[in-house]
Amino acid sequence: MQFKVLKLAVLLLFSLIFSSYAKASPAQPEQSESQADLACFKPDHKTVDMFHYGKGDYEYWLFEPANPKPYTAPLIVFNHGWLSTSPVAYGAWIDHIVKRGNIVLFPVFHTGIISDPRNFTYNVIQVIKDAISKLTRNEVHVNPELNRTAFIGSSVGGIIAANLAAVADEEGIPVPGAVMCVQPGKTWQPADFLNIPLEDLSKIDPKTLLLTVVGDRDTVVKDIDAKRIFEESHNVPFSNKDYIILMSDNYGMPPLLANHYTPSASLRQYGSEIVRTGKIKSITISNPAIFDGYMDDIDAFDFYGLWKFFDGLCDAAFYGKNKKYALGNTPEQKFMGKWSDGKSVTKPIITNYP
Questions:
Q1: Which residue from 168, 153, 80 is spatially nearest to 122, judged by alpha carbons?
Q2: For the chain, what is the radius of gyration of the CA atoms?
Q3: Which residues contact 27 (CB under 8 A, 6 or more apart)?
Q4: Pairing outcome for strands 178-182 and 72-79
Q5: Beta strands 103-108 and 143-154: pairing type?
Q6: CA distance 120 to 111
Q7: Contact present, 266 and 272 (Cβ < 8 Å)
Q8: Nearest partner of 152 among 234, 224, 256, 229, judged by Cα
Q9: Which strand (E) or helix (H) includes residue 351?
Q10: 45-351, what's its fold?
C-alpha cells in the first residue's frame, strides 16, 4: 500500500511539474498581416480557381487567382516531393502564392515507384508546354506572363526546379527569373536507377535569382544535393543567390523543427478529389494561416521562412522590389518571428560558402 501511495505521489509530482512547464512554455510566432515585416505579402485575391488536366506522368493541376480575376499573372511551377502527388500536402502554401496574384502549375511527374526518375524533369517540361497551351488558348483561364516565371520544388522537386532552370532555353520553356530549391534530393541513392540526374547547372541564366534551402535536422536527403546545386550553378553570381540553413528552435511549445517535412503545409480543400478534369473548382479560404481543423502542419518556418523567402525572391525577379526578404543576409531575410514571450526565433544561417 505504501509503495502505491509513493508511486501516486511521484506521478502527481511529475504531472504538476510538466503542467507547470507546459503552461510556462511560450507559444510559436503567429502570422499577422499588420506586421511591418510581412505587410508587403498581403494577398490581393480572395479565392482560387482550380483545374485538373492530364493523367499518369503528365497529370497536373492549375491554380489561378480569382475574386478579382486578373487578365494576366506570373507563372509559378511548383514541383512536389517524392510520392507527394496531391496538392493537398502543400495546399496552404499554394493558396498563399496564388492569392498574391500568381498562377501555380502543380505537375504530377510520376505515378509512384513504376515511373523512371530519369524522366521526371522531362515529364514536367511536357506538362509546362501543355499547361501554357491551355492557359493561352482558353478564355476561362488567366493568361500567363511568361516573362515572369519561377520554379520551386521540395525534395525531388527541388532537383527538378534546378534542372528546369538549366535546360529551359534549349527546351523551349520560359526561362525563370526566380528558382528556389527546398531540401533537394536525391542524386545519390545506393541504387543508381533510383537517382534523379542533375543537369549541367552552369547553363542557368546568370540573371536568375536562386535560393537553396536546407533544414538542420533533415536526415532524409541531408544537404548533399543542396550544396551541389549551389556550387554547380557557378555562373549565377553570389549577389543573386544564397544558401540558407533553417535552424530548429526548441525554446517553446510546440518546438520548431527544421526537418525534411518542413515545407509541407496541408490544406484538404486542395485535395485532388474535389475537381473533375477540365472543370473549374473555386476554393474560398479566408485565412489559411489560422488553424481551424483542416490544416495540421503550418508554423513560423512557413510564413516567416519559406513563404517569405519565395515571395521576396519572386517580387525581386518580377517587379524589382522586396529583395531584402529573400537575398543578401539582411535583417529582414533572417527574421523568423518571435515566441509569445518576445524572444526571437533562432535565425537561419545564410551563406555563400556552404
A1: 168
A2: 21
A3: 252, 253, 339, 340
A4: unpaired
A5: unpaired
A6: 10
A7: no
A8: 229
A9: strand 349-351
A10: Rossmann fold (3.40.50)
Q: Which cell is 44 given?
A: 490581393
Task: Report pTM.
Answer: 0.88
Close Cβ partners of 53 (under 8 Å, ≥ 6 residues apart):
59, 60, 61, 62, 130, 131, 134, 277, 278
Q: State pLDDT tens for residues 297-339.
A: 788 999 899 999 999 999 999 999 999 999 999 999 999 999 9
* Total number of residues shown for the chain: 354
Retrieve residue 346's grid coordinates.
Answer: 533562432
Whole-number percent of the chain with pLDDT over 90: 67
Q: What pairing do the DSSP bridges indicate for beta strands 47-53 and 281-284?
A: antiparallel
**Looking at residue 285, what is its pLDDT?**
52
In this structure, are residues 105 and 85 in contact, taking their beta carbons and an 8 Å threshold? no
Cα-based distances in Å from 13 to 4, 9, 330: 14, 6, 46
Pinpoint the alpha helices (H) of 245-342: 300, 307-319, 331-334
Q: Is 101 helix (H, G, I), strand (E, B) or coil?
A: coil
Q: How far apart are CA 183 and CA 153, in angstroms?
A: 9
- Decide: 97 and 78 in contact? Cβ < 8 Å: yes
The CA distance from 113 to 169, in Å, is 30
- The domain spans of the chain are 45-351
- CA end-to-end span of the chain, whole Å? 61
Cell numbers standing for residue 309:
523567402
What is the grid cell recorded at 299? 508554423
Contact 244, 352 (CB under 8 A): no
Q: What 3-state DSSP class applies to 48?
A: strand
Q: Where are the alpha helices (DSSP H) in the chain?
A: 2-24, 91-99, 120-137, 156-171, 224-232, 300, 307-319, 331-334
| Residue in this structure with the C-alpha cell 515511373, named with its chain if needed | 115
Cell triple for 342? 518576445
65-69, 72-76, 163-167, 239-243: which has the minimum mean pLDDT? 65-69
Phi first, then psi, for residue 159 (nearest 5°) are: -65, -45
pLDDT band at 295 (very low <50, low <70, confident <90, very high): very low
> What is the amino acid identity at position 108?
V
Tell me the three state secondary structure of residue 205: coil
The 10s digit of each residue's pLDDT in 246-256 is: 999 999 998 99
